[in-house]
Amino acid sequence: MRRVVHRRPLAPFAVAAQRTYWDAQGSQQESLFMDRKDLAQMYPTRKPRVTGGQYGYNRSFWWNITPVSNCAKRFPTAPRPLNPKPAEIITVYGATGYLGSRVVQALLENPGIKMVRCCTRYPTLLDPKSDLGKILDAYPDRTELHEADVTDRIQVNVAANGADTLIHCVDYHSEYVYNSHMDVFVKGASNVAWTARAQRSERCIYVTGLDATFASEANYVDMRARAEDAVHANFPDATVIRFGPLYGAGYRYRGLGRFLYPVVWGATRCQPTWVTDAARAVARAARSQRAVRTRLDLGGPDEMSHADWARKFSAGFHRRLTVPFWKGWAIGLGKAVTWVLPNPWFCDGWVRTWELDQVNRPASQFERLYSWEHIAYRPHTMEEAAAMTKDPTLLPNFAALEAEHEELEKADKAAAIAEEEEAKKKGLIRGVANPSLGRSDGMEELAREIYPGGQFRVRPLADAEYPSNVKNPFPVGAAGGSMM
After folding, report:
1. Tens digit of each residue's pLDDT (9 = 90 or more) over 16-71
2. 162 Cβ contact list (under 8 Å, min separation 6)
3. How many other CB atoms are there within 10 angstroms of residue 480's CB atom?
């Protein structure tokens, strides 16, 4: 006897009712196998411990960083400029920042620099009265404003097209969605260094701080230290510059920071660096032969405690009430404000930054580690910086200092040539490295082409009012015409 089975039609929402996994979109195939473990990996609530006993940071780190650049890949036919020429066309990423705008100003004070490309994520939001807006008005023929996000390699490539020096000068504390410290520092610095290598740039400079420490409990500190290794892996001849806590006029306080400064970890030792000295050091590294393939620890000339630095900063530049504050309350408050405010003026990572001493490391700790003496620049104390801020005429002319430094490097080159000639008389001949063996296969022209794709803007924003000093709000072709 034949058995007949009557099947009922499935209800339209029966499958959805049986779901036990996270499906934020409800239609994306890649979310079908996502569970709570994946969420804990992507958005950890606390940093896991590693085998070494310290705190590590594991926000999908390895699978996120391996696709952006292959550190083991080499260009066998690419000529490596062992003696790069001084910078003439420079791209500065993070040009609207507190340090970045002053780096642009210091670069333009040198007449040997032909063009400075100032990169920002939001050119339409640039205030003409800001530091960078005033610089663009003062140097209209030697500056360009580009839209570039360091986390997008195509935008980085477009802004770097034809530049001989790339400078990563991006810095921020409070991270948020799609703008984590790993994205901006590790991936962003890797993009800049990789682009510098791919398009045969002469120099690459990465700016960080003396507090950068690998596997630190603060994500801000940890990721900047990882970025140093990423930059050196992608561009071996890069210059890494580490500054102490920056101070100076025009510091952009937010919220209660304009009136109150709670000192957490007041006994921490630091070497604060005047922002003008820091900007001039970056500008000098862009043209100095001594700065190639080096790590520069450029802390200020005076070493003091965190509490003393806060009091001197308040007395010489911005009047603020400095009070001691317990670290437990500061860290808890820093965690709380990130859940309440969309863009908080401080976070727990910024508080933990001051847990570490920010002083120059000994030269024996790293290979090719130097300080101010190596670039022949004398930093100023906080008292001297305060006096020069009130009376700018006391500040030495940077163009004259650069001319003296160029003469010093010419003397170094002449001494090296004389040493070689003296060695030849004794029968000693030093070999000259030529990694490319003199070959060229057209990669230079290919690397300078703008990559096709839809990730960068090919036309101005619809109904956007660009400031009058915005020249290049979108990519342009090789002939100067827009890619419409």
Report:
1. 455 555 555 454 444 445 555 555 655 555 554 444 333 444 334 444 444 444 44
2. 89, 199, 448
3. 7
Ordered domains of the chain (ranges, CATH):
64-415 (3.40.50.720)
pLDDT digit string (tens) for 220-237?
A: 888 899 999 899 888 888
457 CB-contact burial (10 Å; exposed 0-12 / middle 13-18 / buried 19+): middle
CA distances to 190, 236, 419, 440, 443 from 77, in Å: 22, 16, 31, 6, 8
Other C-beta atoms within 10 Å of 19: how many?
10
Which tokens belong to 408? 């010093």
Q: Which of 162, 142, 173 is nearest to 469 (CA)?
A: 142
Question: Would you state the pLDDT for residue 41?
Answer: 56
Percent helix, strand, coil in the chain, to 5, is 35, 15, 50
413: DSSP letter = H
Q: In a 10 Å sphere around its CB, with 0-12 CB exposed, 13-18 middle and 19+ buried, how is residue 111 labelled?
A: exposed
What is this structure's pTM? Answer: 0.77
The mean of the pLDDT values for the chain is 78
The tokens for 236 are 């071996």
Give strand ranges (E) for 267-346. 269-270, 273-274, 295-298, 304-305, 321-324
Structure tokens at 312: 């001197």
**H/E element, 326:** none
Query: How much of the chain, in percent, has pLDDT values that exceed 90?
Result: 35
